[in-house]
Amino acid sequence: PLAVLVLRGFLTHRAAGDVRAFLYAFFPAMATTNLANTWIKRYVGRLRPFFYQRCGYDASTFACTDDKDLLRQSFPSGHSSESMCALLFCTLFLLGKVKLRRSLLAPREEDREEEGVGQADRGPSRLPFGLGAVRLAPAWAALATLPTCLSVWIACSRLRDDWHHPADVLAGLLLGASCALFFYPCGFPPVFADDSHLPLVSP
């Protein structure tokens, strides 16, 4: 997420307010996710799928000889929760910048004449080789969801590597998404607002 913010600031030279608003909302979201994740892990103490393969289980004594705390911290998935929080926050930030409401609706004449409106809101762009015209705004909106798709892939990898049960991953995704959705409005308007591209925190 920070790389996306820096890249946008380099390209637009108008990132002072974005940086402050982004950090104002992003770090509390990540801190809350990490704190909740750690507390729940220690409180629940669910065994990992490979617990008995790595705890040094002795069949004669019916006890483990190498029972580590890490083996009892399966619920919820930390990778799932933290990646979802960070990357969903990044998706919300990008959707705000492409003005999601205008991306999904046909551009109005007054929108086209509005000062500062990006090229994505000024109607269709002409494709080369006689392929016709296309509105790029919906495409940018679709691309903005790629960070969230990446977080889902990370979560699935925890299942494939046998580090978590399915419920652990699902709980992690819900925890991370909840924190991102809760704290994002602290720095930026809702993504469907007309001023979604403007930070709420002054530069």
What oligomerization state is this entry in? single chain
Average pLDDT level: 78
Main beta sheet, described?
2 strands, antiparallel
Number of strands: 4
The residue ranges in which pLDDT falls below 50 over 5 or more consecutive positions are 113-134
Fraction of residues in H or I helices: 55-70%
Radius of gyration over alpha carbons? 22 Å
Q: Give the DSSP E fraction (strand runs of 2 or more residues).
A: under 5%
- Write the H/E string, N to C: HHHEEHHHEEHHH
Helices and strands, with pairings:
Layout: H1 2-12, H2 16-44, H3 51-54, E1 57-58, E2 63-64, H4 78-97, H5 100-104, H6 109-113, E3 125-127, E4 132-134, H7 137-143, H8 146-160, H9 166-183
Helix pairs in contact: 2-4, 2-9, 4-8, 4-9, 8-9
